[in-house]
Design a protein that fits this description.
Elements: E1 2-6, E2 12-17, H1 20-23, H2 29-43, H3 102-118, E3 122-125, H4 135-145, E4 150-154, H5 160-166, E5 172-176, H6 182-187, E6 190-194, H7 195-204
Parallel strand pairs: 1-3, 3-6, 4-5, 4-6
Antiparallel strand pairs: 1-2
Helix pairs in contact: 2-3, 4-5
Length: 206
């Protein structure tokens, strides 16, 4: 399939052939959902922790005598039923990460790219380079194209001026082709790929 290539300043820069195996897959929500869950689980810190009965700082003395009080038999104020007592089976530090095969992750990326193309939210540009690292210049380009929330993916090496200009724009993310992922693609309204990024993706999925 062919798609027009545009320039950031103005005008077209020809067209590009996109691989059907990468950009022409029928998107499946269940696959995208599994990959996104896998990504978010890897990002989760898992440092949540509570004090158990053995960790609470309190006296170990028996609080009152065993019999004759008319109440329940208790031996410690650290019990979970008391105020400031330990928590029973509370969260402890752990990893939330789970396994997902490389083949499935690659399939998820193909489905995400195909989904953006199917909805008309995939744009191919000639390159992501600026002569000056000015935020105003890049912001005007985004306004002219109507890109409100965009992800721009370039080749292996990012242009320094372009990266500097994009840092001050909250609705714009810039990634090298090695950092492209399903979650960032779906999070943004528009996916913008350079020619170098398309070549790198096709080489990656050979």
């Amino acid at each position: 399939m062919k798609l027009d290539v545009i320039k950031l300043d103005s005008g077209k820069a020809g067209s590009i052939d996109l691989s059907e195996k990468i950009f022409g897959v029928e998107p499946r929500k269940d696959i995208l959902h599994r990959v996104v869950r896998w990504q978010l689980a890897r990002k989760q810190q898992g440092t949540h922790s509570v004090l158990t009965r053995s960790e609470v700082s309190y006296s170990t003395k028996k609080i009152y005598r065993q019999k004759g009080t008319g109440g329940a038999r208790h031996g410690s104020r650290r019990a979970p039923i008391f105020r400031k007592g330990g928590v029973y089976k509370g969260p402890t530090p752990r990893s939330h990460e789970h396994n997902l095969t490389k083949k499935f992750r690659s399939l998820g990326l193909k489905h995400a790219l195909s989904a953006k193309l199917a909805t008309g939210d995939l744009v191919i540009i000639e390159n992501a380079k600026l002569s000056k690292g000015k935020t105003k210049v890049l912001s005007n380009f985004l306004t002219n194209f109507g890109w409100r929330k965009a992800l721009i993916v370039d080749g292996p090496n990012l242009d320094v001026n372009f990266l500097r200009a994009a840092k001050n724009i909250a609705c714009l993310d810039v990634l090298p082709c090695a950092g492209i992922n399903v979650y960032d693609i779906l999070k943004k309204n528009t996916l913008v790929l350079t020619r170098a990024a398309v070549d790198a993706l096709e080489e990656r999925f050979k």
